Amino acid sequence: MTMSQSRQNGGPVPLYLRIKSHIAEHIRRGDWPAGLKIPSENQLVAELKVSRMTINRALRELTDEGFLSRVQGVGTFVRGNPLQAGIIELPDIAEDIRSRGHKYSAIIEEKEALRANAEVSRLFGLAQPSRLFRAVIIHCEDELPVQIEERWCNPAVVPGFLDQDFARITPESYLAGIIPADEVEHVIRAVLPQASHQRLLIIGPGEPCMSIERRIWTGGHVASYARFVHSGNRHVWRSRYNPLSPGKSRILAEAS
Q1: Distance between CA 25 and CA 8 in Å, rounded?
Q2: What digits encode the pLDDT tens for the residues 87-119?
Q3: What is the rounded distance in angstroms from the CA atom of residue 201 to the CA atom of residue 70?
Q4: Measured between alpha carbons, how far is 48 from 97 in angstroms, rounded to an integer?
Q5: Which tens digits make up the pLDDT trace of 188-203?
Q6: In terms of domains, do 118 and 71 share one?
Q7: Is the dihedral of CA 103, 231, 248, 62 positive or negative?
Q8: Torsion over CA: 47, 50, 55, 56 (sign)
Q9: Are 224 and 174 within one domain?
Q10: Is 95 found in the same domain as 178?
Q11: Is residue 178 a part of any domain in this protein?
Q12: Helix (H, G, I), strand (E, B) or coil at 148
């Protein structure tokens, strides 16, 4: 790790600020993705040849600002770039459908414990392929499939996940009732459907879809990662918020 000898207000920038700025820049650029465990304080002290107090102050301030999450006895993890944090809140799909006077139902396609691949393990901040819980659920509105949910959970955080009847309670509602969410991340993109999406949503290969990825942290650990895929021709997404209020906005689904 190299740091420039920049100056602040005509004088040298304090060392802890240079270290803090350098780590934050790694996170902003995506070099250090969310969930990554960063080097320990002792490792940073040895690598940068500065005092432990200097390292501790830099990491403490980055934690306070939302860049890092520190778990006692475990380590320090990247939470993400707070400048990219969203203010959206996705409603539970069952509640949303029922609130519009329509019938909600669910089809449980898969529910299992398995060894996740390296990509999914990385999303949980795990260094190698690890055993996780997985469920694939088709959410239906008036018996028409409108959303595919692929949900992964960390057994160490949500040990009872596979015991739930997800035809009766959605994973989102279940998790909201048992774990406090310290942080939630959303990634929204437009995609073309994969073959499995076409089969489960009963759509054609060229029909545009909306993909929403949702990660939930609790106690410094990633508890859940979910990917929701919707048919773009069946739902309209509407967001409403008050720009003068620090409160969250909500993204609501409407049948088109």
Answers
A1: 18
A2: 456 678 888 888 889 999 999 999 999 999 988
A3: 41
A4: 55
A5: 888 889 999 999 999 9
A6: no
A7: positive
A8: positive
A9: yes
A10: yes
A11: yes
A12: strand
